[in-house]
Structures are given as structure tokens and as C-alpha cells.
Design the sequence.
């Protein structure tokens, strides 16, 4: 998956904003103001940091050695760095969904209701 396809997939999700809160080279995707994906735009090959369940993160790093690594400049327990052009598109999409769902699962009832109310 290339970086444009990754962006298109992320922004198609409900409640998404994209920002550059750190610098002009690091694109951050947020759901209702909470970060779930981070993309360093100047890195080659293309990479993305995604939130991940700690046990699944370890399993993925072992199965996709060198293509999925502990989150670069992130919590190594809760974030993975994916080399998105080297992984199957279906896996990247699944991991974007997983990251999004993890963040949404921590929302308050009020925030979940606001997300659900969006079209």
C-alpha cells in the first residue's frame, strides 16, 4: 500500500481529522481528537505508526520481522511501526482498523455517542 492509499483509507473512517501537531513532516490522524495513526512523510520506504494490543504487537513483530517493528519514537508496548509498502494491503487495513478500534474503545459514553451521531 502506498502512502496516498493509506491516507485515503484513514480519512474515510468516521470522526477523523488529520493534523501536523509536531512538525510539517509528520501527519497525524485522530479520531475525535485522539491519535490512532502517525505518518512520517519524509521517511523512505513509507512508514506508519499504529496503536496495537501489546500481545498482538509482539506476535506481529515476530511474524513480519523487519516489516513491523516497535513504534519509532512511541511507546514500544502499545505502538508498532509498519513499513506499509512491504506488507499486504489487507493486513495494513486490518491494523488501521485495529488501531482505530482500540482508541474508540477507550472513549467515554458521551464521546462514543458523539462519534455515532456523525454521518
Sequence:
Amino acid at each position: 500500500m502506498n502512502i496516498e492509499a493509506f491516507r485515503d483509507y484513514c480519512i474515510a473512517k468516521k470522526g477523523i481529522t488529520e493534523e501536523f501537531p509536531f512538525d510539517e513532516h509528520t501527519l497525524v490522524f485522530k479520531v475525535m481528537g485522539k491519535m490512532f495513526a502517525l505518518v512520517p512523510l519524509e521517511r523512505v520506504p513509507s512508514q506508519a505508526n499504529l496503536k496495537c494490543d501489546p500481545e498482538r504487537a509482539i506476535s506481529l513483530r515476530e511474524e513480519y520481522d523487519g516489516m513491523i517493528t516497535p513504534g519509532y519514537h512511541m511507546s514500544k508496548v502499545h505502538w508498532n511501526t509498519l513499513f506499509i509498502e512491504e506488507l499486504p494491503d489487507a493486513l495494513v487495513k486490518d491494523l488501521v482498523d485495529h488501531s482505530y478500534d482500540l482508541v474508540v474503545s477507550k472513549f467515554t459514553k458521551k464521546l462514543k455517542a458523539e462519534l455515532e451521531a456523525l454521518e
In short: Residues 89-105 form the longest helix (17 residues).
